[in-house]
Amino acid sequence: MAEETSTELPDRLSLDPRSPYFDADLLKQGIGIKFNGQEKTNVQEYCISEGWIKVPAGRSRDRYGNPMTITLKGKVEPYVDDTADEADGDDGVASDG
Question: pTM for this structure?
Answer without folding.
Answer: 0.75
